[in-house]
Write a sequence for this structure.
């Protein structure tokens, strides 16, 4: 089928490449000229495991352009995967989605389905359909369908090719059938529902996961006080199929482009409708304070960070991605710098983006974990990269001036540090040494 995708971020590009891998002819549109130039050469502008390879293999089915008119005019299906960032008041900013909708309305010259993958508040697709109908130039049928995206960064390609489910929200049969054809070769349960339900599935799922994390983090904080070990506790909980054993890792809170904004957007939407969604509000509050957990713990060892060498292992919001949006490192590193610390950061893929977000000459970026640790007075682990998890813990002792390791992601078993002379404090577990 002839498909266009608006936006080539984590969702748009992965969607476009995966659709091309199933034989569809896909034109990916972005407003960012530099990005488009890079993609034209078969290079992915974002880091996502397996994406570059799949993109290179399917270049014959892929076109990259900023020329939206040529892309939208004769596409049978147009996916919208542009950002819906958070506004100051917590609501979703729909400017980019509406920009694309307007461009489609002005360009479409044949019947088509506009498929909204961007996460949008419940009711948005109804409004978008009316908006497009008001603005459209040609006398053609333009349907709007909701098809929320559930991929997780770090496993985006796998999550798309083997999706847990494909939710299709439509108000009539035809767009539903067209989307069934688009996804015919994707092995995943397909669920056809009403548009508003599809929009809600996305928020309800993401916010539930955020809630699960915040719940575990609160239990972890209590474990520290009462002397229990959260890893043992969650292991015991996970055997219950009603709870499940995934997404039960305690840590310094969730980040990324989705959970923080989607919890706030749902909370905003509830209050806009004179409702209160208290569980989600609580998840947000817990997460906001959890991000500072390690820095608070560090005060036990140092009154302030003046002239201290601080090693940071991992700065992305999770492993497997170069994305830093809402990463705990972004709020913690500035505090350390303000306090006079010498900050050294190691991350396998995130440092370029960190440099852009926090341009500070004083930060030293390291090529290896060893380099970050040399002479350090304290080490913070913000991301559970495999390199960190596999790191020989004895080296913390050998390389650091004072071996104090504060692990925000519970990368190691406690026994690894017993009798090592390394102080190891993690989340929801007793401190060793
Ligand atoms: P992103 O910021 O990585 O990418 C958005 C892209 O859209 C950018 O490249 C931008 O230049 C481009 N763009 C903006 N206006 C455009 C226009 N008029 N035409 C064409 N391109 C345009 O965003 P993302 O992380 O891929 O997220 C996109 C949407 O998907 C959001 O609503 C997000 O909530 C949702 N989502 C994201 C994830 C995720 O893990 N990132 C998962 C599920 C759902």
């Amino acid at each position: 089928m002839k498909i266009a995708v608006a936006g080539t971020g984590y969702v748009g590009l992965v969607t476009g490449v995966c659709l091309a891998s199933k034989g569809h002819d896909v034109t990916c549109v972005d407003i960012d000229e530099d990005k488009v130039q890079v993609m034209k050469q078969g290079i992915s502008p974002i880091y996502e495991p397996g994406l570059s390879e799949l993109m290179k293999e399917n270049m014959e089915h892929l076109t990259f352009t900023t020329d939206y008119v040529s892309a939208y005019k004769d596409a049978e299906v147009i996916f919208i995967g542009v950002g819906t960032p958070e506004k100051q008041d917590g609501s979703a900013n729909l400017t980019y989605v509406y920009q694309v909708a307007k461009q489609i309305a002005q360009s479409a010259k044949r019947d088509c389905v506009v498929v909204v993958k961007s996460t949008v508040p419940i009711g948005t697709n109804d409004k978008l359909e009316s908006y497009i109908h008001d603005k459209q130039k040609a006398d053609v049928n333009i349907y709007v369908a909701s098809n929320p995206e559930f991929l997780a960064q770090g496993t985006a390609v796998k999550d798309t090719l083997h999706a847990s489910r494909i939710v299709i929200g439509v108000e009539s049969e035809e767009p539903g059938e067209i989307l069934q054809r688009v996804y015919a070769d994707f092995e995943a349960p397909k669920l056809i529902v009403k548009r508003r339900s599809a929009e809600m599935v996305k928020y309800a799922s993401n916010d539930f996961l955020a809630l699960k994390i915040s719940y575990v983090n609160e239990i972890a904080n209590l474990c520290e006080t009462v002397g229990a070990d959260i890893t043992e506790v969650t292991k015991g909980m996970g055997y219950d199929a009603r709870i499940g054993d995934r997404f039960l890792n305690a840590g310094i809170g969730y980040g990324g482009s989705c959970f923080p904004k989607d919890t706030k957007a749902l909370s905003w939407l509830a209050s806009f409708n004179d409702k209160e969604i208290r569980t989600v509000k609580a998840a947000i509050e817990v997460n906001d304070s959890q991000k500072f957990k390690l820095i608070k713990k560090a005060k036990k060892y140092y009154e302030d960070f003046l002239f201290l060498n601080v090693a940071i292992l991992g700065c992305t919001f999770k492993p497997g991605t170069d994305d830093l949006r809402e990463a705990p490192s972004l709020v913690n590193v500035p505090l350390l710098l303000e306090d006079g610390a010498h900050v050294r950061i190691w991350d396998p893929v995130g440092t370029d983006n960190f440099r852009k977000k926090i341009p500070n000459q004083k930060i030293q970026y390291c090529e290896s974990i060893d380099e970050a640790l040399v002479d350090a007075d304290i080490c913070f682990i913000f991301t559970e990269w495999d390199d960190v998890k596999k790191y020989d813990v004895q080296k913390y002792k050998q390389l650091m001036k004072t071996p104090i390791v504060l692990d925000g992601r519970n990368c190691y078993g406690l026994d690894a540090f017993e009798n090592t002379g390394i102080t190891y404090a993690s989340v929801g577990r007793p401190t060793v040494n």
User: Anything to note?
Assistant: The mean pLDDT is 97.
